[in-house]
Amino acid sequence: MKRFLSLAMLLSLSGLSINLMAQNRAGASQDQPPQSQQQPQADTQDQQTARVFEGRIAKSGGKLVLQEASTQTFYHLDDQDKAKQFEGKGVKVMATMDAVTNTLHVIDITPAGR
Known about the structure:
Blueprint: H1 2-31, H2 44-47, E1 51-60, E2 63-68, E3 74-77, H3 80-84, E4 90-98, E5 103-111
Parallel strand pairs: 3-5
Antiparallel strand pairs: 1-2, 1-4, 2-3, 4-5
């Protein structure tokens, strides 16, 4: 009889723990979207927000750079081809910035008058 009670109690506790684990998993999945809807983790650079830098395209050390009008800061430009047609001109550069290398990752360049 003791064995039967011990076995019944063990099965009840096992069932209870399985039920609790299932409830915890169900609650956790409600807090987060399903795996297919989660966005993949991106590196820090991809998470940066693009912004507009205004200045003049100039040559420095054989490379084209943006000299920002407001701060007189020089930024390296990763897309030399886009910048080439604006050399010596005032522009607006839509880009993300890599603060470590002081490089603008160019999205678009337009004349400053626009």
